[in-house]
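Q: Make up one entry.
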Amino acid sequence: RNRNVASRADSCNTPIELSFLTDDESWNLLCRKAFPSSKMGSQCCSEEFEKLGKEMVKNCGGLPFAIVMLGGLLATKQSLAQWAMVYKNIHGHLKGLPHQDQNGAVMNRILVSSYNDLPYPLKPCLLYLGHYPKDWEISKNELIRLWIAEGFISPSLESEEISMEDVGEHFLEQLIDRSLVQVSRQGYTGTNVKTCRVYDLLRDLCTKKAREEKLLEIIQQSSAQFDVTLVEPMLRRISIHPSERKVHLKGKHPKLRSLLLPQNETLVEFCISNCKSFKFLRVLTLLKRNVEKWHVSNEIGDLLHLRYLKLECWNEMILPQSIGRLKSLYTLYIKYHTDIVIPDAVFKLELLRHIVIKRIALFGRGFRLRLGFTSKNIETLKYIMVDEQPIENNEVLRWTNIQSLGIVFTRTEYVKPILILLTKLQRLGSVSLEVLDDSNLSYLDLEPLSRCCHLSKLRLAGGIKDDPHPSCHLLNFLPPNIVKLTLFWCRMSQDPMGVLEKLCHLRILYLEGVYNGRKMMCSANGFPQLDSLQMIGLEELKEWEIEKGAMPCLRRLELADVDSLGMLPEGLRFITTLQEMILTNMSSSLKERIKVIDGREGEDFYKVSHIPSIHVF
């Protein structure tokens, strides 16, 4: 988008400049956006629609972004009269403008019209996206939980069949369908959204409108340390975008609802002088790093309206008993490094739906649940520790709404009884299991997992002893409907691929330090749905064979620290769907064999020549 940037990146070659779209290309793009359910492209509408549409698309000047936005707006209009109203709205603002100013005016008018056309509940949801920095990849789960905490999604929309999260997903889908939000990464199912982005021009509109409506203010300073005193005392939300500095918020702010720190929180220390000055806060994120032990202020209990609390500490964190007064808390997200002290009061907060307490380390340690924690509302619970005081049966069975669960086991024998209980949780879709029993590595019985039919996402971490019977494999008991699987430092001696390739729904597979063997085999017709494969730290692997017909849908392959592998498998050349391959810290011989130097291809280049994007580090 900037010729100077491209020229400096490579001064030897002339930058490739994208040309504007032709009239036909512009019309076809508009049709794809305005009629998303039609497969007929530009043949999908009547003469009247086509004539009006081509007049509107002409005003876009061949700019793809303007056409996409216009298409998103027209997609919500079913009648010719509605299209005519959009045309009148846009065309009327161009009269009297010099030709060189018309493209910018069209763009701005389309953006404003798209915003004005939104149903009222979606307007604050869109403006709220302005608090993220430019080009920021926004987590869908975090965004929806923030919308709920802010009150943008009313509890009255919830029912027995539809949760507030479901409503939030529907809101986001509507913004995406209108081309106001861009999907960045899809979820592991391949159909849902994992992360999203906002176009820069649209973000500018969001920040401007949010400021006008006193919905949100962004504070950005360049000094190393600064105090923030809000000029406008009635502001409801502020987002602070520092880089590496300490921030103090001063004064009283009776209307303030949210303190947001979206940008690189690991480099921010945020201090509030007096919680009572912010008593209506609903959303708060705080971080401490330069202390050995963070005693979170007892005054945090004065924030009685708090719904979303995110705390991060690089060392030990001690939560106060007063946190039990936060009766409206909906989401509690905590990251710590060495240790954490959690008061019993946390587990008596009945409205809590999402508890994520995770250690910033290779392996988590988990926190101990308190007796009597039987919240029926809990949907996310990570990461609890199971040690000499196992979880009671009746406690687990009351978690009827649990969807995502993380457990850390101190001993292998504690695993099977818990897995048996998990088979009874009908909404459970995601599970993370860590085994810390390194001193007494014993056989891990995963048989109950095969009965967890609703499970689609699974993570197994820690040392796992192979099945004592050579004919069996402990991974035989993985859930049949698994879509995303992560195996982390399991250190098995049996090749896992023979079992994993039979998982018909598996789309994403991540293997790190999982196999100590020298040979790996992927059979024909194996991994029928696999889309992404990452293999890291398989230090002993010397030979990898892929038969023709294996992994027919694979689009992304990443290998890192598989440094004994001398060459890439022959079968890669048959995987014509591959779009991207990333190689990191691989053997020099492997890298040499796929290089092209002065037009001379390496002896294995033919195996990967069909892959559009190859990165070697």
Notes: The CA atoms of residues 460 and 510 lie 11 Å apart.
